[in-house]
Write a structure and sequence with these properties.
335 residues; TIM Barrel; ten-stranded parallel sheet; two-stranded antiparallel sheet; 13 helices; 43% helix; globular
Length: 335
């Protein structure tokens, strides 16, 4: 099972307090991930501060643009891969510029780019960038994925849709990799359909073990209906990690983190399907033994990549320590 770590490009004030993710800290986390043999790091894509974060903090968060951030991460690392977890296509309406940035980054990093795309967790951000817009974000993503893939693969590309259009574009050079992996982010069945049709992987967030078993079965059926081999699809859910010496200590510590507040806020959007389940019922929270057991159950269910794990912490040193405990005490015991 692959294991990768979250990078706080757009998570200050959401999962982490303010101040937290200055440039030095972001680079330090990435270099730590490489040293500990994490497969990759995954950063989020936010353009403006969410309403609940403004209400909580007097100081605005630092949301770093992920592709520019990764150019610096690439210069400071040699083997670590990095992915957009996720690039919000409804906020990236100039798809040709986005494709050019991605292809350029893949070359300058030596072919270490992975791409995650999706709708985004907060509709309020979309409305801030597109005031008064009533367009369905899902339809924008449905059109944006093939529009992006065509630019990254076709020698000369043209596309005319409702939301994206370009004509006779020779975007060159293409990415250095023969094929840049594209993950489809999101928890609902529409994203299973998108992953089956276009994706190299499916990237949901904080899905309970019982549900992910059912979702993987559905994803397999949808993939085979598209005439594709399900073995080519990475099942790559994202979870929160917090490890303590005892389960009680881990829960007490986790409940005091900004990460806990963020997960609670998402119950109205991305995580609304969780119902009455507690955060610890879903995520990797507890002792090393607890975390190993749950991670291996996820593997048995069909998970192939624990992607962009976010380690709950209220300061950088705690985050780095949690990353090290997971890498040294959990990863060697994963099936």
């Amino acid at each position: 099972m692959r294991v990768s770590a979250g990078l706080p490009t757009g998570m200050e004030g959401l999962t982490y307090p303010i101040p937290f993710s200055d440039p030095d800290a972001v680079i330090r986390i990435a270099k730590h991930a490489e040293k500990l043999d994490y497969h990759s790091v995954w950063g989020n894509d936010h353009m403006t501060t969410q309403h609940y974060v403004r209400a909580e903090f007097e100081t605005p968060p630092r949301f770093w643009e992920p592709l520019i951030t990764y150019s610096f991460v690439a210069a400071e690392t040699t083997t670590l891969r990095f992915g957009t977890g996720i690039l919000v296509l409804p906020m990236r309406r100039d798809i040709v510029v986005a494709a050019k940035q991605l292809a350029t980054l893949d070359h300058f990093s030596g072919g270490r780019l992975e791409i995650g795309v999706g709708i985004g967790a907060y509709r309020e951000e979309f409305l801030a960038l597109q005031p008064g817009e009533t367009l369905p974000r899902g339809k924008i993503v449905d059109e944006g994925i093939p529009a992006l893939k065509q630019l990254l693969t076709d020698r000369v590309a043209s596309f005319k849709g409702e939301f994206f259009a370009y004509e006779d574009v020779e975007l060159y050079p293409k990415p250095l990799q023969d094929h840049v992996p594209i993950y489809i982010g999101g928890n609902n069945e529409n994203n299973l359909r998108r992953a089956a049709k276009w994706g190299d992987g499916w990237l949901p967030a904080a899905v309970h073990l019982d549900r992910i078993r059912d979702d993987i079965k559905t994803l397999r059926e949808l993939t085979e209906a598209e005439g594709r081999d399900f073995a080519d699809i990475e099942v790559a859910p994202q979870y929160i990690v917090h490890i303590g010496k005892t389960r009680e200590a881990a829960l007490e510590s986790f409940n005091q983190t900004q990460m806990c507040a963020h997960l609670t806020s998402l119950r109205k959007s991305t995580l609304k399907g969780q119902g009455e389940l507690n955060h610890e019922d879903i995520n990797l929270i507890g002792t090393v033994e607890d975390v190993v057991e749950r991670a291996n159950l996820l593997g048995e269910a069909g998970v192939t990549h624990l992607l962009g794990l976010y380690f709950a912490a209220n300061n950088i040193e705690e985050l780095l320590d949690q990353m090290q405990i997971f890498a040294e005490d959990v990863v060697p015991r994963l099936c």
